[in-house]
Amino acid sequence: LVLGLYSPHYIKTVVGLAVARCILGFFAGYLAYRIWQASARLRLPWPTVAEVGTALGVGVFVSLAGSGPYSLLAPFVFLAAVWVFAFEAGPLSRLLKTRPLQFIGELSYSIYMVHLIIVVGIAIAAKLLVRVTGVNVFVDVTLAEASQKVISFGHPLLMDLMALIYLGVVIGVSALTYRYVEIPARRYFNGLSNRFGGGRRTAPTNERLA
To answer: Which of 94, 170, 194, 195 has its CA 20 to 30 A from that of 142?
Structure first.
């Protein structure tokens, strides 16, 4: 309600009223968990239709909602998607449980933490390229109803290749930060929790990369 009444950017709010967005997302996640708890013993009907339909529905919503008023429905759209996929009953769930995608899932927090740092690094390198060579690799495009500068090397296939390289770098760096930063930090803070929590054991974690 706060975002709808006072934020001109709705769900895209990243400063100022962003705390309201955080609260909305947090409680939507909690609500999804409670709904799953209440329905975990049920059987998802037509799991293939449910999963494929949910994936398509999310894609259509993201494409059409943009950053307008309907974007405020995003937490509830994703709540429904999380609930459907929590049953792990359809073909998309089986795909997500394959080892490569499980590996990406293990790295997800590290990916979240490092991907923007790599983007900033690429932007700095591109600006240096412009300064040294005089070749402008920035173009103005409209994204999310706003004009923004993006890096472009021209040919779509070349841009696809650059995207794949970026993806590979993000995964590679995230694997390193997962092993040498995230896992040691988790062990350290779990140790503190056990020490000051009366010796209670923390939940086990997946550390297959360790």
So the answer is: 170
